[in-house]
Amino acid sequence: MRTSSKISRLILSAALALPGAAALADPLYALTLLGGTGSSASDINRWGDVVGSITSAGVTHGFVNAGGTYTDLGTLGGTNSSANAINDYGQIVGGSDNGAGQFHAFSYAVGKMSDLGTLGGDRSEAFGINNHGVIVGDALNGDPATMGFAQAFRYSGGTMTDLGTLPGGLGSTAYAINNKGMIGGSSFEGPFTVPEYPFHAVTFSGGTAHSIGASDLGDSAIYGLNDDGLAVGGIPMSTMIHASHAFLYDHGTITDLGILDPAQDDSIAWDINNLKQIVGSAAVTIDPDHYGYHGFLWTGAGLVDLNTLIDPASGWVITSANGINDAQQIAATACYGGVFGDCRAVRLDLISAVPEPGSWAMLALGLGLVGVLKRARPVCRMPA
Questions:
Q1: Is 231 helix (H, G, I), strand (E, B) or coil?
Q2: pLDDT tens profile 108-165
Q3: Residue 225 is part of which domain span?
Q4: Can you give the CATH number for the domain in which 183 is found?
């Protein structure tokens, strides 16, 4: 862990933990619009490059905004595509129509989109990629015995490998992979029964899935991993739909991260960085624009509504936070003008803050060090 990361982590955590942190004289984060109307953000790499999807006139395309330049990724020959993840080398993964009535996982690098194929069926999608170029996702295998459920896969060196399921499970999905090769996701656990929710948060290794011990009350999944093996996602709190809580899984221990609104029993964590900072979305009641969900940040002192950390005069409402890097930049989706207004992909950048009261002035000085200590971006080279 770099010294700059240690300093910025300690300062931000202190600012959020102190009384009155929700009422800052100046915002902690600056908001930058990255995509056009109808866009949403999915992931961010260490350089602040953000990927996501944009929908216009009923057509959806994946995009990347890198260094301030917006690029439409196109498709594999069909109509629609979505970009789900990006690594530090600028490699992007997602899914796309292929022009033959199928939806396939893709990788995108140096201006070229490549079809990753399937496990034998007619659909696949990639959800994660690490800095070694290893890709994870799910795909149909064409076996009637799986009853149409997708199977988690790992893709490396041109080969797609089935990662397996929990015992008796019909299907699984891999959502995340870290730079050490740890894979997280969810798996069906048999037998198939209705109306139970049989998907469980798992890690994958040795050709099978391993449960992390989440509740059997409903669906659970791992959506984000950091390089220390910490995992985040959502776990069920009751058998009711939309009653899950964001969680942190730390080498055998599951911690409930809670909710933003006591009247709304629903939250989910999408990503975690190597500073153990977590982002996600949570249901809210006091929501004049009726979006229903707000993006949150967790640094160890509970969930914090990201809308309390940006300039309220902007008019934008952060409805979901989907990715966070070690520079504490956040890939999010923000909306303006109510449910019939404009939603766009945004990036939140940590800035100097002057919290109340004025005796916190040293916090502002420390936050300023974040920008000073950042290293210049080198020329990107693809991994071997």
A1: strand
A2: 999 999 999 999 999 999 999 999 999 999 999 999 989 899 999 999 999 999 999 9
A3: 27-351
A4: 2.130.10.150
157: Cβ–Cβ under 8 A, 6 or more apart, which residues? none
Alpha-carbon Rg for the chain, nearest whole angstrom, is: 20
Within-domain flag for 331: yes
Q: Is residue 383 part of a domain?
A: no
Name residue 72's beta-bridge partners: 63
Please tell me the distance from the alpha carbon of residue 223 to that of residue 324, in angstroms, as a whole number.
13
Tokens of 258: 């809670």
pLDDT digits (tens, 9 = 90+) for 340-365: 789 999 999 998 544 444 333 333 34
Q: How confident is the model at residue 16 (pLDDT cuts 50, 70, 90)?
A: low
Tokens representing residue 86 in the block:
């990006």
pTM above 0.85, yes or no: yes
Amino acid at 155: Y
Are the C-beta atoms of 202 and 185 separated by less than 8 Å? yes
- For the chain, the domain total comes to 1
Q: Of 27, 24, 18, 13, which Cα lies nearest the Cα of 356?
A: 24
> How many angstroms separate the CA atoms of 322 and 70, rounded?
19
CB 95 within 8 A of CB 85: no
Cβ within 8 Å of residue 366, ≥6 positions away? 7, 8, 10, 11
Residue 72 lies inside a defined structural domain of this protein:
yes
Residue 130 identity: N
Q: Which two tokens stand for residue 176?
A: 């995340």
* CB atoms near residue 308 (< 10 Å): 18
Preceding peptide of 191 cis, ω within 30° = yes
Q: What angle do CA 357, 360, 365 make, to 5 degrees?
A: 140
Kindly tell me the sign of the dihedral angle through the C-alpha atoms of 320, 176, 187, 171.
Answer: positive
Question: Reduced to 3 states, what is the DSSP secondary structure of residue 105?
Answer: strand
Q: Is 229 exposed, middle or buried (0-12, 13-18, 19+ CB in 10 A)?
A: middle
Identify whether 221 is part of a domain.
yes
What does the pLDDT look like over 195-245, one tens digit per residue? 555 789 999 999 999 999 887 767 899 999 999 999 999 998 765 555 789
Helix locations, the chain, DSSP H: 3-17, 361-373
Residue with tokens 């002035």: 361
- CA distances (Å), 204 to each of 162, 224, 232, 341, in order? 10, 14, 15, 41
